[in-house]
Amino acid sequence: PKDTVDVVVVGSGGAGFSASVSAHDHGAKVILIEKEPVIGGNAKLAAGGMNAAWTDQQKAKGIEDSLELMTKDTMKGGRNINDPALVDVLVSHSKGSVDWMTAMGADLSDVGRMGGASVNRTHRPTGGAGVGAHVVQVLYDNAVKRDIDMRMNTRGIEILKDDSGNVKGLLVKGMYKGYYWIKADAVILATGGFAKNNERVSKLDPKLKGFVSTNQPGATGDGIDVAGNAGAAMVDLQYIQAHPTLSVKGGVMVTEAVRGNGAILVNREGKRFVNEITTRDKAAAAILQQTGKSAYLIFDDSVRKSLKKIDKYIGLGVAPTADTLVKLGKLENIDGKALTETVARYNTFVTSGKDADFERPNLPRAINEGNYYAIEVTPGVHHTMGGVMIDSKAEVMNAKKQIIPGLYGAGEVTGGVHGANRLGGNAISDIITFGRLAGEQAAAYSKKK
Ligand code: ADP
């Protein structure tokens, strides 16, 4: 071997970084490898926030939440096929993970709403700026501070095992160094999902053939093959999520928080057609049934001011604006008269606190201030729920549910946490919590060896 460490982490998204920092802090010598030239994976693109229950940030805002409620929402969103033991880890560690990130310098003090949540529990930076870039930056800074050996342009190829089947290292391929192996007691797979690989996606779910994706280029799923070749079992691979709101004009993903903060969805006929903050699978399916397989997010300046991220969309030119809804309709070929009626009716629901048409559970503000905006949206492949089978210690298992000693998995590469459909805000929570856990477990395992 070229190098010898205690733990090798594969992938530099939120899960990989959390695992690296946590393994280091539990006494392990760590190498982190990333096949792409840049760090951050898809985690860096996450726009929504980090779900957590019973946090100080919620309490400061008078939000009443509980572990039971977050568990119920997560299971319901996942159509109850989530692995309950993994959901228990996700939920019970969520506050601890917010505190862990905060202690490392993150700002997660703003708390908003995402689809499928019964209360506000999506933690994000003040003013609602993008959570992913922030979280990855904080983790990266902490990895640098700890002098963790990070290698870009380095792909994990094969898990190496000794004669008794214990992990003994990882074969990698560096862009400049070529093939070499790293000797290690434990390998943590944090290689993310495969939403960018339409060939793999459409084989598992033919309905998604030809769909665009919100993901970064590295989200191809080769980590799934690396795990499979090492004997890992897979769960729920057929469950692939389309994010309902990808901007048609710019291909940029529009965060669910825009709806959470008060935007409505209308079709070209100017009518609402769904509870805007239902789960992603339902919202996406509803949009695909509308004329042209797209819909419009409609909001005003009060929604815009409540969420910093919206200024980015306006800056990208994907959110045309006008001072009346009729003019807005003209710009985008939406029935302006119907749109005006729809918004007026929706505003009466905001006043009465009850959505008589679609039972939307949160009605944060009326749409009647300043200028109006419309973002045309359509679904794009966003998250792959399935993946490597792990237990509640992030240990990877084979088809007989026996652990593969020394192999750990965390984040989107794993399956079971989100069941058939992931709730917005649960990915960041997943990658931080399971990354931390995998790092801790791998470090302890290495120490014992
Ligand atoms: P998560 O959200 O679970 O942390 P991300 O998608 O954010 O997942 O990050 C996964 C990272 O792993 C990406 O940056 C991706 O390029 C990287 N990656 C995927 N496969 C490999 C591999 N075989 N070797 C090294 N890095 C990989």
Between the first and last Cα atoms, what is the distance in angstroms?
18 Å
Query: Helix amount, in percent?
Result: 25-40%
Mean pLDDT: 96
Assembly category = single chain
Largest sheet: 6 strands, mixed
Question: Low-confidence segments, ≥5 residues, pLDDT <50?
Answer: none
Counting helices, strands and paired strands, the structural category is alpha/beta
What is the gist of this entry?
Keywords: Electron transport, FAD, Flavoprotein, Heme, Iron, Metal-binding, Oxidoreductase, Periplasm, Signal, Transport. This protein has 449 residues and is α/β, with parallel strands linked by helices. Helices cover 34% and strands 21% of the residues.
